Amino acid sequence: MTRYAVVFMRTPSEPDGIRIGVVASRKVGGAVKRNRARRLLRETARSLVPLWQNRPLWVVFVAREAINERNATEVHDDIARALKENGAFHFE
């Protein structure tokens, strides 16, 4: 869990590459805030996918309300830090 999103990761039973899901509930805010939160999380996911280890993986990002006041760099840095600390990917 990060300050701006909860990240769920699972290895599928049948290998089919990396799949990413992004969710923002009404707790995040109205439609405009939810869409912005999803855009921030999708952009973060796009930048992190090349860093993931070469293995099949399903990842779901769930936006938290705190994401509303942040910019893309802050969201990316927070999620990348948390995933690196948990060993979810490696840097080459």
List the helices and strands and how they pair.
Elements: E1 5-10, E2 18-23, H1 31-48, E3 57-63, H2 72-85
Parallel strand pairs: 2-3
Antiparallel strand pairs: 1-3
What does this entry look like structurally?
This protein has 92 residues and is α+β, with helices and mostly antiparallel strands. It has one domain: 2-Layer Sandwich (Ribosomal Protein S5, domain 2), CATH 3.30.230. It contains two helices and three strands. The chain has helices spanning 31-48, 72-85; strands at residues 5-10, 18-23, 57-63. It has a three-stranded mixed sheet, with helices on one face. Helix 1 (31-48) packs across helix 2 (72-85). It is globular and about 35 Å long.
User: How many strands in all?
Assistant: 3
Which architecture would the CATH scheme give at its second level? 2-Layer Sandwich
Number of H- or I-type helical stretches: 2
Report Rg: 13 Å
Secondary-structure content class? alpha+beta
Main sheet strand line-up: 1-3-2
CATH class: Alpha Beta
Order of helices and strands: EEHEH
Mean pLDDT: 89
* Distance separating the two termini: 24 Å
The proportion of residues in beta strands is 15-25%
User: Judging from the principal axes of the Cα atoms, what is the shape?
Assistant: globular
| Unreliable stretches covering 5 or more consecutive residues | none
Helix content: 25-40%
Structural domain tally: 1
CATH topology heading: Ribosomal Protein S5, domain 2
Largest β-sheet summary: 3 strands, mixed
